[in-house]
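Standup notes
- DV: blocked on the single-chain target, sequence here:
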Amino acid sequence: MWNTYGLSMALPISDPVLTFAIVMLIILIAPLVAQRLRAPGVIGLILAGILFGPNALGILDRNDTIVLLGTVGLLYIMFIAGLEINLNQFRKYRSHSLVFGCATFLVPQVLGTFLALWLLGFGWPAAILLASMFASHTLLTYPIASRLGLKRNKAVTTAVGGTIITDTAALLVLAIVARSTRGNLDIEFWLTLTASLSIYVAAVWWGLPAIGRWFFRTVPSDGTTHFVFIIACVYLCAYFAEVAGVEPIIGAFLAGLSLNRLVPEQSVLGTRLEFAGNWFFIPVFLISVGMLVDPKVLMSDITTWKVGGLMVFAVIATKFIAAAITSKVLGYSSTEGMVIFGLSVNQAAATLAAVIVGYRLEIFDETVLNGAIMMILATCLLGPWATQHFGRKLAILQREMPEDLTLAPRRILIPLRNPDAANAIMDVAFMIRDKTSHEPVYPLAVVQDVDDASARVASAEQMLGHAVMYAATADVPVVPATRLDTNASEGIIRAIRELRISTIVMGWTGGGVARNRIFGSVLDQLLKRCSQEFIVCRFSGPLSAARRLVLLVPPLSQHEIGFGDAIRTIKSLGQQAGLSLVITGHRSGLDELSAAIEKIKPDLKIHLYPVDSLDTWLDPDAPGLEDGDLFVVLAARQTQVSWHPSLDRLPRQLLSRVNPPSLLVVYPSEDTVLVGYNHTKEKSSSVLFNRIFDAERILLHSKARTPKELVDTLFDSMIELQSSDAARLREALYAAAEEEPVEIAPGLILLHIHAGSARIPLGFLATIPDGIDFARIHNPAKVVLVLVSPASLSPSAHLQHLADIAVTLKSKPGVVDQIQNSESSEEIKEIFA
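- DV (later): unblocked, structure below
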């Protein structure tokens, strides 16, 4: 049987099936053995490559197949490094990356050149090329930093960014030295290299994302289509990098950076790409590196030890000096400096490219080739140890930092109704979920309790089964839930309470909504009866095809409960999806809002788009939106001070556009502590309240039956309102009562206008025992407050007064009953004393 299949036990093994089996066993066992010895798994794979390779036991041959798979793995490392880099953080620390990139190239290049000239007697071309091998480095230990949760740390971002600079420069040195052996470095060479690189970089940086967005928008993913598209793009970019005059690893890294915005980290596609590299391609590359080492040569050739020893010393010393200079200049800690050293000392990709090209062109002999292998082995042992040892210390320091309360774990509920939209809604939940959190997501199906409930439960469980599989593919823990109830809203509310949910992500079809509703009966009931954070989604295209996140923020939003959590949610979504953030809102307070948003993590580059009124966005032809934009409305419930009637009409109006954008409507939570306010703030707000609402401007036991009658009563009885512009103020208050009443609490209404010629803001308070009805307010108003700010007051000051009034009222439990039971103006004033 064995002879039938042509199996031969001669070494090295040539049978492809057995070769593959042995490689897979090495990938399985070597990291486990290394970890038992408290060494990084990377070291285990390299040592296994030496042991099983052609220069030791000779079990495996470094044949064309191993070389091919190793090359694929090398390019994959560079691609994943570019894909996972946080571009917003890279922009924030781009000066840091520039400092490190210059230091880690110039220090080894200059010192290495002089060491080769003086100690080894090399000529200038050989000395420069040898030093370029010291200058370059491979992000071999980046997976270690990633597993330790450090990939967004500024030191790691600096090291990865510096890799772009130093590897590009080192490989350009290789191209120039190689060309010098074949002819002069004339003007034609420089012009050709500059032109080809410029065209190549422009095509990849701008052309590849455009092609990717078009592909994602037009070709639905069946689980593998988008994955194969990404892989094909990466290796095409790597090939054409070589055509342009640089090494393929630069092309793979640039492809990762270009596709960064199209592949959210916490997505099914991102998880598949990471898995494909970690389980096979990258380990095979590490094994192939180990196969290059020839232990017999190292033991018998003294010259190889001399050259190799000098090369090992030079690369370690110069990389350490570069990391130390970077830490000193940028103010990093010694631990961060050693993590940078651990990431940048590893030699593999560019080093192999340089030494092989130099050997082929007879610039180097076998001594340098073997010395390079020694250098690769030494640095590939030292780098993983340094990264893991100091990376663990840095990870511990990060965990010991004061915890940001806004980063508390959240529980996300995903009520599902439409199976076709389930994946897109779940993607949103994955992106806003903290990857380090152990909390699962909760997909929910609610079945109406009717005669055929059993059949409906079976159908719901089938939909939930798909959701579970989709979450598992994205490596997100999931707990499906089914509720049997009289209607959908009751079932969802019961699940929210039982599972202690903090965030609800729901879909919205956008059709068949009555004018007096925002979304529809179910969603409107949930918003009215639940105080948790809500995210309502309606997508007109795949999220991966979006380029910008346009965030509409109404005035006073920064004073709402849950503002910080809502902004963190939105910015996390933008960061994961790789979107730029455009903030739009009323121009008078937009700078203040933008400053508040910028303080909240994560960091995103912010652009401002001011408008004269929120009603601007109600116009279907309003400018400011581009094809593919994700429009996010930071909405408010009617009981919140930032509520505006335009916010309720906006979702329907946006859908009336010729090309409606993808839409998210985010309602901040009302459960957490008030963001931005402390006890001192509340005391100052009470002082302001007492100053604005003077005892003489309080009207008790009004008999008014309508908002218009109440306004007329105030104008007839309050002398401050009987001015030359009384008629204009009266009309303005009529309009405010009709269009913009703000319900601070059940039975408590605030009206405000910014007009008039008074010198100071005037506040009026009226109690109405029988209550009066306001449009779009469900509870009869028993207490009405009116704020009239002078036109001379700045819009931001007027809005601040509104916020202070709202804070004062919300800080007084039972304030409506207390005011109603008061028999005099003095009693009301004492409530706020």
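- Follow-up: The domain at 65-400 is CATH 1.20.1530.20 (Na+/H+ antiporter like fold).
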